[in-house]
Amino acid sequence: MTDNNLAVLHALDTARTQWYHVTAIVIAGMGFFTDAYDLFCISTVSKLLGRLYYYDPADPKGDPGKLNHQVNNIVIGVALVGTLSGQLVFGWLGDKLGRKKVYGITLILMVLCAICSGLSFGSTPKSVIGTLCFFRFWLGFGIGGDYPLSATIMSEYANKRTRGAFIAAVFAMQGVGIIFAGLVSMTLSYIFLKKYKAPTFKEDPILSTQPEADFLWRIVLMLGAFPALMTYYWRMKMPETGRYTAIIEGNAKQAASDMGRVLDIEIEEESDKLQQFKESNNYPLLSHEFFRRHGLHLMGTMSTWFLLDIAFYSQNLTQKDIFPAMGLTHKATDVNAVREVFETSRAMFVVALLGTFPGYWFTVFFIERIGRFIIQLVGFFMMSIFMLVIGIKYDYLKNDNKWLFAVLYGLTFFFANFGPNSTTFVLPAELFPTRVRSTCHALSAAAGKAGAMIGAFVVQSYTLDGSSKKIQHAMLVLAFTNMLGFCCTFLVTET
Questions:
Q1: Residue 249, CA distances (Å) to 10, 119, 246 in order
Q2: Using CA atoms, how far apart are residues 313 and 415, in angstroms rounded to an integer?
Q3: Of the chain's two ends, which shows fewer C-beta atoms within 10 Å, N or C?
């Protein structure tokens, strides 16, 4: 017996696109907008933290805004650790307690921890950064829960014809969140620049860091609470998905009532059919039946997301050469603290707008025409080619053809998002059965965050000294990693 034998599920699969679909995309998408803003806004102010709390006037050499390597890894990476943990915990709870109940908890956690991150306190630099890291871990924990729940809810609300596009549209809000992280930081730093003048670092190392700059990074982090807060009411008004209510809770009457109301149609309850369906499909995650039906799919979604994120989170290896080539940043010693935030934010905004953002929406528009499988294969392949070229010709591109360097760099972002960065989010939401869908998506996403940690800590630590040879080696390894992702894609199937 298949899902389509049940009237409520057949009604969901064949429903025409309606206003409630758009509402679900916006509600789930605003969660992802918040996720991206909260995760990426720290990159715009991390150097400011270095200037405020770790600059030593007795050691004027080097980059004045560069955080100690270990501190930088902790500040940037603690949210990734929290995200991985939250994905596993909330993904499992989503299948056990229901999508709607857990969905509200993640949002509350994100709102509170975004505000508390900006209020980080302490009498010493170590205590301020320690408090910030504590709250960013729990912020990441809430963000992690949003991954499997948003994907699962959108999958279970959507119809078959547009399901991939709807899930991809939710994920595409990540691109909007990254753009706003750059835009908000750029706007606020510009306001501070106009209001609080300061010399460059070369002119006066001490006065180049405006005292008011301590408010800047706090405001940037705290603003991440607002989009999540605005969607809380609407998220709580959404009924539990009909698939969860029918298949896991076994409440055919409630499922028919809820989905009949949002679809504006009459749906038959079919309690007897539902019971037969549950009995024939009642196999847990850790069972021979699950691995027979979906074992290769789970291996495929976990491995491809893991391999993608190694490359995706290593993509800023060459930013130090790209941004000056595009005229977006100056050396840290040539600007004051707030000006550095402005230039870093501007660079992030431009790259996101021109390279990252279009890739997400190309996936939304083409996923139902080309298919998830082909988009993922092409994305991995093209990322591999561009990273291979950058790795082989790094010195030539950096010194003699900077604009070609910038184009190749932008294309790696474009094909990451019009490729595996989007499809690895979509596929787990469609491939797995309702009773373990949230858990399987969480396992896949957590594998991705494990890859992100390798990219953020291992790969970037290897190239910390900025050596061209090491960056070349890293880019060649990442090209190979993407080809492995290309091969692992064959473990999944078109949905």
A1: 18, 41, 6
A2: 14
A3: N
Is the distance from CB of 81 to CB of 114 less than 8 angstroms?
Answer: no
Question: Are 472 and 391 contacting, i.e. CB atoms less than 8 angstroms apart?
Answer: yes
* Exposure b/e, 431-463, CB count within 10 A at least 16 = b: bbbbbbbbbbbbbbbbbbbbbbbbbbeebbebb
Is the Cβ–Cβ distance between 364 and 168 less than 8 Å? Answer: yes
Smallest CA-to-CA distance from 479 within 371, 357, 394, 363 is with 394
Distance separating alpha carbons of residues 100 and 26, to the nearest angstrom: 16
Distance CA 161, CA 170 (A): 16
Burial (CB count within 10 angstroms: exposed 0-12, middle 13-18, buried 19+), residue 250: middle
pLDDT digits (tens, 9 = 90+) for 263-285: 655 555 556 666 666 665 667 77
Reading the block at residue 290, the tokens are: 């699950």
Q: What is the mean pLDDT of residues 380-384?
A: 97
How much is the average pLDDT of 368-375? 94
Tell me which residue has tokens 């953020």: 456
- CB atoms near residue 105 (< 10 Å): 15
- The tally of CA atoms less than 13 A away on the side-chain side of residue 418 is 18
Whether 404 has a pLDDT exceeding 80, the answer reads yes
Amino acid found at 296: L
Alpha-carbon distance of 302 to 294, in angstroms, equals 12
Tell me if residue 1 falls in helix, strand or coil: coil
Q: pLDDT digits over 159-209, tens only?
A: 888 888 999 999 999 899 999 999 999 999 999 998 888 888 777 777 778
Average pLDDT, the chain: 85
Return the percentage of the chain with pLDDT > 70, whole number: 86
CB-CB contact of 102 with 90 (8 Å) = yes
CA 287 to CA 368: how far, in whole Å? 32
**CA–CA gap between residue 166 and residue 426 (Å, rounded):** 9
Closest CA to 363 of 409, 312, 427: 427
Query: What's the gap between Cα 261 and its chain centre?
Result: 33
Show Cβ contacts of residue 18 under 8 Å, excluding neighbours closer than 6 positions.
262, 263, 264
Residue 56 C-alpha from the chain's centroid: 35
Question: Which residue type occupies 400?
Answer: D
Q: For residue 366, how many C-alpha atoms fall within 13 Å in the half-sphere facing its CB?
A: 18
- Better-predicted residue by pLDDT, 98 or 177: 177
- The sign one gets for the Cα dihedral 264, 266, 270, 273 is negative
Asked if 177 and 33 touch (Cβ cutoff 8 Å), the reply is yes
For 364, the token pair is 């939304």
The size of the chain, in residues, is 495
